[in-house]
Structure formats: C-alpha cells, structure tokens
Amino acid sequence: MVHVLVGSGDFGLWCKIHCRMRVALVLVLLLATQAWCSSHYREDLEDNEFAEFEDFEEDEEEPLPKEDDPQAQAAKTRKVEELDEEEEEDEDEDAIVEDDESEFDHFQDEEEFEGFDSERVSSGSKLDDKEAPKITITKVPLHFRTNWDSFYLEMLMIAGLVVYALNFFTGKSKNNKLANAWFMTHKSLLEENFSLVGDDGKMENENPGLVKDSENLYTLWCSGRTCCEGMLVELKFLKRQDLVAVLAQLMRPGSDQVHIKVDMNREDMDSFVFCVATKKTALRLAKDMADLSVYCPERRSVEKYGLPSNFTLLSEIVEVSASLLDSRVVAVLNKYADYVDYIHFSDQFSGPKQPDDSSLTKLPDTKKVLMFGFNIPVKGRPVHEAMEQMRPLLQLVFYCMDKVKRFRLSKEAKNKAEKNRLRVEEAFLKTTHAARAEAAAARREEKKRQEKERILLEDDPDKQRKWEDREMKRQMKKKAPKMKQLKVKAL
Predict the structure, then answer these.
(1) 228, burial (CB in 10 Å: exposed 0-12, middle 13-18, buried 19+)
(2) Which of 231, 315, 383, 394 has the fewest CB neighbours in a 10 Å radius?
(3) Which helix (H) or strand (E) holds 488?
C-alpha cells in the first residue's frame, strides 16, 4: 500500500516537470521566431527607402501587438512576405522595361538615318545570337630565361666591341710613339739644314713639330734652305688602330714608311726625269705617275751601276743616271737596300696619271721635285735603335739636293730633253684639238650673247639697228663661198 502511494506521487511530479519543459520549449521557439522575423524585417527596411513611412502609417492605424501574442507574430510575418513579393514584382517590371527600351534603340530606327540597311543589321544580330565569338589565347614564349646560351650573340658583340676599343687605343699610342721617336732622332739634323722646322701654317709658329693628320699619318713641313722652297715629310704608319686593317695585314704584310718630298727652285734643277725603285714599286710608279709613264717608258738594268738586283732604273737620259748614281749614293743603297723603297727626281712632276676620258684643254702644271720613300724597320727591334739606323737616309736626301743643284746636262742631252717635252706637248695638243675648238666656240658664243644683251638693254634704236645690220653682213660673208683672187700680168 505504501509502495503504490509512493509510485503515484512520483508520477505526478514527473508530469509537472514534463509540462513545464514543454512550456519552456515553446517560449524558446517563439523567441527565436521573433528574432528571425525582426532581423528579416530590418533587412527589408534597409532595402526599401519608403519602409519607414509605411510602418509609420501602419502604426497609426493599428496598435502594436504584444510580443507574447502568437497571432500577431504570424500576421506580421505574412505582411513581411507580402512586401517581399511586391518588391520582387517591381524589380521584374523594371527589368522588363529596360529590356524593351534600350538606350541604343534609336540606332535601329530607319527614319533617323538615310540608307539604313535593316536587313543587314538584323541578320548580323541573329548571327551574333547564334554564334558566340571564339576567344583564342596566343601562347607567348618566355623572353627571359635563366640559361645564358640564349645571349651568345650579344656576348660576342660586346666582346668584339671591347677588343676593337682595346686595339684602337693600343695602335694609336704605338703610332704616336713611333712618330715622336722619329722626330726626336732627326730633329737636330733637320734644324742644321732648315731655319724653320715644323711649320703649322700660321703667322706665328705656336706648335712647332709634327702635325697629326690622322691616327696613322703625321706630317712635318720644313723651309728656309737654299736650292729648295721647302720639304714635306710624311710619316705613314700602318693602321694599327683599325682592327680590320690589322687582320688584313696578316694576309698582306706591310711596313711603316717615310715619304719625303722636296720642292726645288726652277733655276736649281735641270730638265730630266730619273727614278730608282724596287721592282714592285717601279712597276706601280711607271703605271700611275704621269711623268714616268711618258718620259721613262722603258725599265733599265742596274747591274752596271753596282746596285742590288732588286732595284730597277727608270731614266730619260743616260748621262743623268751615270752622274747621280755616284759611289756615295751606291754605297748607301747597297747598305740600306731593305730600307729604300724608291728615289724619284723629275722636272715634269704633275701627280698621278689622268684618265684617258678626261677633258683637259691644257697641259697640267708641273713642278721640279725630289721624292724619297723609305721603310721603317721596327719589327724585332727597339724603336730608338730603328730610328737611329734611318738617320743616314735623311743625310742622303740632303746630299741629293746639293747634287741636283750642281748637276747640269750637256748640250746634246739638253736638246734631247727639250725635244722630248716639245713632242709631248704636240701630242697633247693633237688629242685635245677638238676639245679646244669646242671651248673656243663656246667662248665666242658667250661673248656674242653678252654683247646682244647689252645692246638690247640700251634705249637707242639706232645702235640696235646698226648692230643688227652688222651681224647680218657678217653672217652673209660667212655663208658666201670662199674664192681666191689671182693677179695675172699682161704680156
């Protein structure tokens, strides 16, 4: 009995607890529903700009429901859903309006434009709707790679520029060193024979010494000596500053040279042409120089004069060779045979030979000159030692100047030289007769034209009429046949 009462009391207690838990669960669900609705309603208010005014009107008409009333909460939720549906319908209508009336529709109006092809536009729009454009992406290669083999051309170019620059400065400094060494070695000898050494062409000689014409060419002008107007020295070195020329010299070796040209006075040199040179140089000079090609067409042997066999003699008159090639000159040529390139004396020097098609109307101007060409032996020797060995060659130049000044041709040789020059002049006049006739006719026509212009510019009609009559008579006389008048004596 006691056990049944106790069981019934526990069952009642459990029922009370279960009811309270259900009530609490319902309250929690209501609170969660209210929180969700309020948050959703707040978002709707943020999207709708006029929500504040609508809520205000509704608040005036209907009293606020209590939070604990479930019917009010349900009504409020239905109103929010109705507002959402209305806003979605408004947005759909706006979208439909935008689709119907596009801002570019006026371009499709046929009345707006003349010659508007509506079929082409409609067909183009249909094609655009059917076929979407295909986008192709080009594969771009990688320009910058980590491998240095991709830049071997650039590296070779940079290396070539560096080598060229180094060779330029090295060759330039070496040529400058050779020029200064030659000048310092021969300066005392030049000052003994000339009063002015190293003229720069100005009134006051500001920089006496060598003049640098290029990186491989230096010149020196000396004046103030008897029997000559002056002496020009050209130091012509190899183009060591040019890498291409250096590579070309490996296939065709050359040598540094000194070219000396002495301008003799007219009265201090007789009429003759003479040249001693190596065989290769003599062939080139006989072909290129005008005086040697005309007055010395034949090459003679030098064995009877005691010269080395590698030399060739070009001489107009035999006695000139015998007189100029004395024992002292022959001794120097034998001793320094490798250094001497050519020795050229001429009273008819006019430079290189003119081409055959040149239109010359008079003989070119000639000079009396002595020219020397010497090689500089710098290979395998110190610079100062090589320049000291060339000192006797400059002394040979001064000796030849004095020798030519004292030398005079015999009467027969003088007549032969004059005949040769007269023959050359006559041959030149024959070849240029037509050109000179044309030039004379052109001068006469120019003179007539100037006279006619002068007469026409004058206002005197009598002078103009007289000039026309005189021209007419001259033309008639010119056209008349030429007749000779013979006088016959009566018997």
Answers:
(1) buried
(2) 383
(3) none
